């Protein structure tokens, strides 16, 4: 038997997403038999004590205090970018130029210009690249994709998606990097709406035109830092200006003729991670909600009259994507498994030197839509999105 190829990973940033990714590298070979096996070779962070502690706790073999050093190392095959958005562009381009495969957290970049340079760099280098839109890897969502591709929902007419959270509603919640344009590019928009846009592109197709609005409800906050997960700490008694959106909404037309209604907010009391959508086609509809992620609500016109209605499917049967790797039917999986599923496909992509979806092109197209919604909100005009052949 030939030994399985090992992919030696170097991960940059080790808090919220760093933890989710670390867990997924550890568990991937436990559940799946991936074509290539990730090796948790090294992590990078700026604080020596912090990065050493994180490496020990999460099971990484070594650490660096400068991400550039990680990219220079010959014993690293792939770079995983788990830093705030402003650091993605420089790290990704350096990693591509060094011939490393790349997994990058979303949104791909701060703006279209950066995303375009990142896409050019990975194409030029011929490395495998992926963006971490992990919700595509929820079994229920992958199953919706199959239903749509098989024509079971018919012609798609509508998607209405909202992604609602409430963790910054307290006016004393500090001005963390997620609320500072120079670090994040945009607020709720790039953070939450980017996921809804990715799911819409994945399930319904390309968007051709958008009309948007954005709002910032609390304009001054005490200074502070993220401290892991979505928690944060105030630092000192100085205040700073919030220069990104707290909430965003937009209307969209799809190239295929469907209509989209999208809303994302961090000011929706009671919604912790309410990533939801409904899709209506000529033959059926589906509804999904991340806070109940194993379940899928389905309406099929083909059902016998009298028994028609939305039914709830628990997407944990062998037939549902990814679930065979885990537990018997009805034994549900969670948020962390979306990252394991994603890494399974990425390892397969690297083993075969094949692009794995969603990739940097998806990240770039997502950024085109994010930017267009921002421009539309400023100008109060509909903004067209260039089609695939045009950019
Ligand atoms: N896929 C998802 O659902 C999802 C969820 C949350 C965050 N994200 C994305 O993941 C990325 C990171 O977010 P997070 O929530 O993990 O943030 P976080 O604040 O929890 O962690 C960021 C990490 O990056 C480190 N860092 C910051 N600047 C750095 C630099 N210049 N060099 C090296 N390390 C640096 C920090 O020290 C920290 O370890 C962001 O792009 C965010 O949008 C994606």
* Major pleated sheet: 9 strands, mixed
- The helix-strand sequence is EHEHEHEHEHEHEHHEEEEEEEEEHHE
Structural class: alpha/beta
Give the tally of β-strands: 17
Oligomer: single chain
The helix count comes to 10
CATH superfamily of the largest domain: Dihydrodipicolinate Reductase, domain 2
Give the distinct bound molecules.
Answer: nicotinamide-adenine-dinucleotide
InterPro entries: Gfo/Idh/MocA-like_OxRdtase_N, Gfo/Idh/MocA_oxidrdct_glycsds, GFO_IDH_MocA-like_dom, NAD(P)-bd_dom_sf
Protein name: Gfo/Idh/MocA family oxidoreductase
Organism: Paenibacillus spongiae
Keywords: Oxidoreductase
Would you spell out the secondary-structure blueprint of this structure?
Blueprint: E1 5-12, H1 16-31, E2 36-44, H2 48-58, E3 62-64, H3 67-72, E4 78-81, H4 88-97, E5 101-104, H5 112-125, E6 129-131, H6 139-149, E7 156-164, H7 181-184, H8 188-203, E8 207-215, E9 220-228, E10 231-241, E11 247-254, E12 259-265, E13 274-281, E14 284-289, E15 295-300, E16 311-314, H9 335-352, H10 360-379, E17 383-384
Parallel strand pairs: 1-2, 1-4, 2-3, 4-5, 5-6, 7-12
Antiparallel strand pairs: 7-13, 8-11, 8-17, 9-10, 11-12, 13-14, 14-15, 15-16
Helix pairs in contact: 1-9, 4-5, 5-10, 8-10
This protein binds nicotinamide-adenine-dinucleotide.
Give structural notes.
- It is a single chain.
- The chain is α/β, with parallel strands linked by helices.
- It has two domains: 5-134, Rossmann fold (3-Layer(aba) Sandwich); 140-357 and 366-379, Dihydrodipicolinate Reductase, domain 2.
- The chain is built from ten helices and 17 strands.
- The strands form three sheets. It has a nine-stranded mixed β-sheet.
- Strand 2, helix 2 (48-58) and strand 3 (62-64) form a beta-alpha-beta unit.
- Helix 5 (112-125) runs antiparallel to helix 10.
- The chain is globular, with a radius of gyration of 21 Å.
- The mean pLDDT is 97.
- The structure holds nicotinamide-adenine-dinucleotide (NAD).
- Nicotinamide-adenine-dinucleotide binds next to helix 1.
- The site of nicotinamide-adenine-dinucleotide (NAD) has 22 residues, from helix 1.
- Keywords: Oxidoreductase.
- InterPro entries: Gfo/Idh/MocA-like_OxRdtase_N (IPR000683), Gfo/Idh/MocA_oxidrdct_glycsds (IPR050463), GFO_IDH_MocA-like_dom (IPR055170), NAD(P)-bd_dom_sf (IPR036291).
